[in-house]
# Entry
Amino acid sequence: MAVAWPRTTPRPSPGIARPADQGLADAQNRLGVMYRDGRGVPQNDTEALAWYRKAADKGNAYAQNEIGWMYENGRGVAQDLSQAAVWYYKAAQQGNDVAQCNLGFMFENGRGVAQDVNGALAWYRKAAAVGNQRAAESLRRLNVAP
# Structure
């Protein structure tokens, strides 16, 4: 399914746009990043979220984590911490260490979920076990060895 690109918006390079249009989740996620950050296209959180959703619907854990971040920060959507936690969980379940760390933070601070230090520690440990430094720092801050 081809995407109708707005005439007033510069179109991303064919190297990214074509695979994204053709449904390649990695390209859709990359296009989401481009729109979120304004790299090669005008910065547009709504457009970023639309591309992330396409990739997330295909199970792309990176896109799922980014959607969580957008909900947590109210970028392109109204801030909704519960939805942020839902999206972080989807990505964390697939082994995305950034999402695992983000979810640990949500549990540690009761953001969008009931506060649960043990839940936070479990997610931080999973992320730290694969080298996520932010998770390891969180464990040290909580006086728990990574």
Q: What stands out?
A: Residues 1-8 have pLDDT under 50 and may be disordered. The two ends are 46 Å apart (CA to CA). Residues 12 and 73 are 25 Å apart (CA to CA).
